[in-house]
Each structure stands twice: as C-alpha cells, then as structure tokens.
From TrEMBL:
InterPro entries: Galactose-bd-like_sf. Keywords: Signal. Residues 1-22 form the signal peptide. This is Glycosyl hydrolases family 2, sugar binding domain. SUPFAM superfamilies: Galactose-binding domain-like (SSF49785). It comes from the Bacteria. It comes from Reichenbachiella carrageenanivorans.
Amino acid sequence: MKTSIFRLVFLSVLLTTFFARAEGNTLKRNSLLFFDLDDWVEIYVDGKKVGRKAAHYGQLHEEFEFDLNPYLIEGKDQIVEVKLFNSYCPSCDGNEWRLGFEVFQDGESVDYVYEEGNEKADRPKMTFSIKYEWGYI
C-alpha cells in the first residue's frame, strides 16, 4: 500500500513538473532578498501591492526573500517598486529607519541597496522608495 502511494505521489510530481515546463514558463529566479529592515516594506508590481513585510521592533531577525515570479509576465516590461515605511514614535528624539536588500533578475544579482536615515515624524509615513523597470535592469 505504501509503495502504491509513493508511486502515485512521484508520478504526480513528475507530471506537474512536465506540464509546467510545457506551458513555456521559463522565468528564472526573480526576487528581492531583504537583509535589513526598519520598520516595514511594501512591494508593488505595476502599481498593485503584491507583498508586505514588517520587522519585529525594528529588527529583521533573518533574511527574507520575496519571490516576484508569480507577479511577472514573461516578455512584458513591468515596474517593480519597493516602498519603506517608518512607524511613529512620539517619545523618540529621532526615528531611525533602514532598508537593505538585493535584487535578483533571471537568477543574477543586479542591484544591492542599503539606505538609512533618522527623521522624526508626527505619523507613520513612507520614508524611501525605489522603482525598477524590470525588463531593463
């Protein structure tokens, strides 16, 4: 019985892989790898928010990779935007923010970003934004 289930699962995985390749999806790794973040980041593709990641008390305790492949259309030039938001801290003298990430397009590292600042604000706000024309990086 266990052998039959194993064969069925193996065959299912094999067929899924075959049909995924047959559909012509040849996108390689397209992602954003975040290694520093304070306070939260939102990711947009062609103006539509596709992801959000928040740091715990201003600290990203482990790297976080955001896969862009589900949102990219092969052969289409698209805009990928990363927006960093900083929370409000009324009792702070300043309000530090940081953003560090690496951009991977078709499996290759194409950009490395590290930005930081310190500004007091009266409300949470976007403090940094960067856009990529995905077909032209």
